[in-house]
Structure formats: structure tokens, C-alpha cells
Write a structure and sequence with these properties.
With 439 residues, this protein is α/β, with parallel strands linked by helices. 36% of the residues lie in helices and 17% in strands. It has three domains: 1-67, no CATH class; 86-305, Aldolase class I (TIM Barrel); 369-439, no CATH class. The strands form three sheets. Strands 11-10-9-8-7-6-12-13-14-15 form a ten-stranded mixed β-sheet, covered by helices on one side. α5 packs parallel to α6. The longest helix has 19 residues, at 154-172. Bound molecules: iron/sulfur cluster (2 copies). The site of one iron/sulfur cluster has 13 residues, from α12.
Length: 439
Amino acid sequence: MKLSRYTELFEGKDGYSYLFNCMTLKWIQIEKELADIFKLHETNIDDLREIHPDFYDALVSEEYLVKDIDDDINKCVEKIIKEYNSFDNLTITINPTLDCNLRCWYCYEKRHAQSVMSEETIKNTITFISNTLKSRNVKKLRLSFFGGEPMLRYKEVVKPIIAHIYDSCKLTSTKLSLTITTNGILLTDKTLIDLKKFSPDVNIQIAFDGSREFHNKVKHLGNHISCYDKSVQNAKKAIEMGFNVVVRCNYNKETIASFKEVIADFKDFHHYNNLRFLFQRIWQEKNDEELGTLWKKLINEIETNYSINSNFHKDSGHSLKVCYADFRNNIVINYDGNAYRCTARDFNTTNSIGKLNEDGCLIEKERDESKTIKGTSYGNICRQCRLLPICPSCSQARLECRFEKCPIGINPIKAVNNMKNIFQILTGIEVYHQLLTSK
Ligand code: SF4
Ligand code: SF4
């Protein structure tokens, strides 16, 4: 037997060691002594059978050890393809508008002033989603609103779509989860009460650009209202009402230190499990050593001064996320009815994958199979990579590297140190919580 390419041994904060397989997502907790034995025989794993047969048998039956590495890799690729084509979980992101009430300097969206989804496109969108729920037997629908600022068009677009889809989900017994990505200014009491009616699982992500001073320099309305205070106040209201609130901290070198003030401003809410801080380097900022040092300093200060009860997400700027853009069950619908795979590229005809028609059907453009998962998007380099099952890259990025090197600069064989970053993003896995909450 051989060690699966995707099995990783690491030490938990609780004094135990953990074996984790990032393809099966199985994990076991082991005593340190057993971990030492494992490490000693890692390269010649069959010796372990003599020394600790029970442990060895458990590792075989739970697939931490495999017969053949190539089979293991093939199984992994098959699993990814299956997941990419599965409709068990459907994610629909809607841009009700590409207009915004603010003008952040770093915003990558091209502003479409006064743009709004028409009644006809709203109808087509509702029909498309309802039909997909029925025909694909979807178990969970993640309905997200993005933009621009989606709350600018809450009444005309967001609410009617949610209300209809809520009914469709009831008919098809589909779980509904809602997400709103907003600057938080228009998150009124009335809206929150409304949203609460539609799902117990509502996620609100509110972007912050640093302390009050920095935030208000980036986000201002041209009156004397402090955007910072408005957003903090609305975020707190949402937390109290039980929404899952993500305080998204968009940082660069200039602002990173000031986020300790943002954390302090939420001090009375740190004990809420539904509050989470998410750090994200703004895309124009270089991820260099200086930023790394500033980052470590901030985390140190936060950890010394606070005990945050939420799953505090320490994205150190590596931006490792499993890319959603390759999933067939992930569709972004723009206000004009054009469909896309992701929100990180311009909403233009080149990037569009098709358009919704009046029957609520997505008329897809012809796909270039060489760019899909069925084609050559996993070259040899990725097939050798230990991060393949949880690769944060997308097929487009791999294609741009001609499948000859890793688009995110990972050494596929030695991808060990990156596992820690990976754990931090796998928030759905029990081991993540266990590791981060054990003191
Ligand atoms: S609030 Fe968001 S959408 Fe609006 S300008 Fe700023 S970054 Fe862009
Ligand atoms: S080599 Fe890079 S792109 Fe390929 S699977 Fe590994 S992390 Fe992903």
C-alpha cells in the first residue's frame, strides 16, 4: 500500500495530531505518539502493518492508504468532474444592477448608471430558476445578490425574485440559502425583517475599507452621514437578528493596521457565532514581504487582545479559494439577462456564456471544450499536485498557463505548507472548527 497523495498529517492546537485526506475530506484525530510512529514509516508504509496492525488496517479501510497512486489520481479527477456537473447544489448569483450609490476607487465593476433588471428579465430569471429546481432535482439553492449595489434595487428586483423563488423551493422541497453582498448603507430594519421571512439561512457580507477615517475616505455619500457608522450599525442589527454576517475587511498596506479599530468597534459582538471577519487584500495591492509583516503584526495584536467567538478567517493574502467558476451548477445572471460563470471578470459579451430567453431557458454559446474540465484543463502538473481535490484555481487560469505551470505558483509535489491555508478556507469541515476553537 502507499500513502494517498492527498493524505496530510498535521498538528492541531489541541495537542493532538490529525490525519486528513483532502479528497475524501475524512479526518482522524491521533495521539502524538501514534503520529510519531506514522511519520517514521511514512515513506515505507508497509512497515506500519507489523508495528501497529490495527492502525494500519484503519488507514487502509478509510483510504488514507491506497493501492495505486494513479488510481487515486483518476478517482480524484472523476470526483471533481462529477461535482462540477452535479446539480445537487445550485448557486445563482444575480446582479440586479451594476449601478452603485458609492464610488470606491478600487471597484473593478464598470459602473452602469441607472442600470436595472427589467420586469421581463426578472420574469425570465424566476422561470429559469424554478424550472432548474424541478428538472434537476436540486437539493439546495444558494441565491446570491451582487452588483453594483444590489440593495439599490431591493424593492423592484431582489424582493420579487426572492418571494417567487421561496415559493418554488417550497414546492420542490429545496433548501434556500440567501446571500447579499453589500456596502451596508441600505440595509434597513424593514429589509432585514423582510429577508428573515424567506429563509433561516441568510448571509450578509458587508465591505469595510479600514477604520472610520479610511472607510469614509473611500466610501462617502456627499452628505454628512458617516458611511462607516451607518454600515457598522446595520451590521450589528443584522447580527442581533441572527443573520450570518461577514465583515469583509478589504485591506492594503496603508489600511491594514487600522482594522484593529474595526475589530474593536465590534467588541460587544465578538461572542456572536454568526459574526465572521474575512480579510481580503484588495486586488491592486502587491502581496509582498512588507504586506506579510504588517499582516502578521495585525493578527498578533488581534489574538492578544480579543477572543473572537466566530470562525475568524485569516486570509493572509494568498486568496486560496476553491474556484466556483468551473461548476456547471454555478450561474451569474446580469441585470441585462446575460449569463456568466463568475463575478470576477467584466460583464461583457466576450465573457458571457449565454443569455436567458423569454421562456426562461439559458441559451448557451458554443463551448470551447478544450477549456472545460472534460478537455485538457488538468495537465500532468495538476495531476501530480497534492492540492488537486481542493485546487483554488480555475480552468481559465490553467489554460492561460498552457498547463505547463501552476497559475498560483504552487509546487505540486511539495504542496505541504499550503495545506494550512487550505484548512482555513474549508469552513464547512468539522476539523476546521475543532482546530481553530481548541485552545
Ligand atoms: S460599494 Fe462595492 S460596488 Fe459600490 S463602488 Fe464600492 S466596491 Fe464598487
Ligand atoms: S498545480 Fe496549481 S493549478 Fe494545478 S492542481 Fe495544483 S494548485 Fe491547482
